[in-house]
Structure to design on (587 residues):
């Protein structure tokens, strides 16, 4: 099916391998940032493109490919985080199983400290409402503007700005409280 | 409420200033740096999985209810049929010297496996159930003769039990082959009654004694080729079930066993004849039930059954095989998971995929393909078990999209 590419390039037939080649790195970055250390990025990428493969024929080009992929990533990450929360609850060791190191790797001290701090950030982010959490991550960590976030999430830019404002206030409160502990 | 018209400065990008905001910026930068995906986070695009997740909804629920109701009705019918099968179907007097061919219940013709010629004084055939028959001798000895010339002499008052093949009304089914499917068909199920002890005199007339009983026929393999094979696996497992044994091994029983298994592998892989391979494997199972190559033969059977499209039997065979030999642990776990997933057992399949991944990571013979397929299978099963609805992203309208994302 011909459809416009995300960059507005001339219409091209949509092919799953081409789609994967072009967008897998972006999807992996979204998955890593939105999901945090508790999410298996490889699994999310596989699931996103599994969905894409299944739904490819139904894609009518009404939306941008990136928007479509972001929605799938967002939902899969959300489901993965829910499962991770459930596992933490069942095992009753939140501090151990919550965001620890993102992935096993030989790390120098700085990397360990950075990963620990990242774990704290994601624990605090998890206390925000989902929309606010997502907007804050896309704004601060992905470096997207309100208009870009609105394009990806399907919200109005004004709504995104409000959510961002609330998210920053809440996150600052949480972070300050954590620092004072 | 104050309207927010502009975007704030990013904490993660701002310079030195407020201490709290500096600290927030540092923390967010650390989180961003720690979540940069590496090359290992980009697996190769997995092939199309065996399991295609479906959106569950009311139609599926209705389908499940219909299936459950149908299953209950079917089970009740099976129970009734089992009860009926235990009751004798009837007693028929057979003229002397004739070939027995009797119509049983439900409009089906039942014939003795042979055909069998009865000659003697008094003959009666008692149909004890579909698939079995008892021939009772009268006051004088009775001879039962099979087509190959084998004969059984029954003493007066004794009973012979044998196999009856059921066939559709207008069709005479060929004799069922018991045991191996290769080689000349065995003699019809006439077994000499000699080893049986003589009946007690007081019971001889009232309760006939079973003198001998032929083995129940196995399901026929000869019809495999006639069946239209079911849809093949979407991605036929490229698993190596261990090297086929050498066709010329040591000697004696081991050598014969290895030659038989090697012939089966040759028929399967070089001859592309899974039915022939299955026949050879049946022969192997009959001759070497405790053979040293039982596992290899089992893996060959799994491969042949998959080629035949018999996924259920392939899975059952695979599950019955002992661990430790044959295919590598990740490959075997992957195959088991894919088969279970394709047969609807996604929950059990998830454990297999996890085991395949764990073994592959541990270096127990796993390959990149095994890992990729295990991940794809796991993703498909997870989707089928619950994420499916959520992963189906609604397609946003063009109007809802403003600006291009990065």
């Amino acid at each position: 099916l011909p459809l416009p590419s995300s960059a507005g390039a001339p219409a091209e037939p949509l092919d799953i391998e081409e789609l994967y080649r072009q967008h897998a790195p972006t999807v992996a970055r979204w998955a890593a940032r939105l999901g945090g250390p508790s999410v298996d990025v490889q699994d999310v990428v596989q699931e996103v493109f599994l969905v894409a493969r299944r739904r490819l024929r139904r894609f009518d080009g009404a939306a941008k490919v990136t928007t479509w992929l972001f929605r799938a990533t967002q939902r899969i990450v959300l489901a993965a985080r829910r499962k991770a929360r459930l596992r933490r609850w069942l095992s009753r060791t939140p501090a151990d199983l919550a965001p620890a190191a993102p992935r096993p790797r030989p790390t120098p001290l700085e990397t360990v400290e950075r990963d620990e701090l990242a774990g704290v950030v994601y624990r605090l982010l998890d206390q925000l409402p989902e929309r606010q959490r997502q907007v804050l991550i896309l704004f601060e960590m992905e470096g997207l503007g309100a208009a870009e976030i609105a394009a990806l999430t399907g919200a109005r830019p004004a709504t995104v700005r409000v959510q961002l404002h609330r998210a920053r206030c809440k996150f600052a409160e949480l972070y300050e409280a954590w620092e004072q502990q | 409420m104050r309207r927010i018209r502009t975007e704030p400065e990013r904490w993660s990008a701002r310079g030195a200033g407020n201490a709290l905001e500096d600290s927030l910026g540092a923390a967010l930068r650390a989180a961003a740096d720690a979540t940069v995906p590496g090359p290992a986070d980009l697996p190769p695009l997995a092939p199309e999985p065996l399991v295609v997740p479906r959106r569950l909804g009311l139609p599926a629920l209705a389908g499940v209810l219909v299936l459950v109701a149908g299953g209950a009705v079917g089970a009740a019918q099976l129970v009734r049929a089992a009860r009926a099968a235990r009751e004798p179907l009837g007693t028929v007097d057979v003229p002397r010297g004739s070939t027995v061919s009797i119509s049983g219940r439900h409009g089906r013709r039942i014939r003795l496996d042979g055909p069998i010629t009865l000659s003697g004084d008094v003959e009666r055939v008692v149909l004890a159930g579909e698939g079995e028959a008892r021939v009772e001798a009268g006051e004088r000895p009775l001879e039962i003769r099979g087509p190959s010339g084998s004969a059984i002499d029954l003493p007066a008052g004794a009973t012979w039990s044998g196999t009856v093949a059921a066939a559709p009304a207008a069709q005479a089914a060929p004799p069922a082959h018991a045991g191996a499917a290769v080689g000349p068909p065995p003699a019809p199920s006439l077994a000499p009654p000699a080893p049986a002890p003589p009946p007690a005199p007081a019971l001889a007339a009232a309760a006939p004694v079973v003198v001998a009983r032929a083995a129940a026929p196995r399901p026929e393999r000869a019809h495999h080729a006639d069946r239209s094979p079911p849809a093949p696996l979407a991605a036929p497992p490229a698993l190596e079930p261990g090297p086929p044994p050498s066709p010329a091994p040591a000697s004696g029983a081991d050598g014969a066993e290895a030659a038989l298994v090697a012939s089966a592998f040759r028929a399967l892989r070089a001859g592309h004849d899974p039915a022939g391979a299955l026949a050879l494997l049946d022969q192997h199972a009959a001759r070497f039930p405790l053979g040293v190559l039982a596992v290899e033969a089992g893996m060959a059977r799994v491969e042949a059954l998959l080629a035949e499209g018999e996924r259920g039997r392939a899975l059952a065979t695979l599950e019955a095989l002992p661990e430790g030999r044959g295919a590598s642990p990740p490959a075997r776990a992957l195959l088991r998971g894919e088969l279970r997933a394709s047969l609807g057992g996604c929950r059990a399949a998830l454990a297999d995929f996890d085991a395949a991944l764990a073994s592959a990571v541990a270096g127990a013979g796993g390959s990149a393909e095994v890992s990729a397929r295990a991940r794809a299978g796991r993703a498909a099963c997870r989707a089928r078990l619950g994420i499916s609805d959520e992963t189906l992203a609604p397609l946003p309208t063009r109007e809802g999209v403003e600006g291009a994302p990065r």
The beta strands of chain B are 90-93, 101-103, 109-112, 117-120, 123-129, 132-137, 142-145, 151-154, 159-167, 210-213.
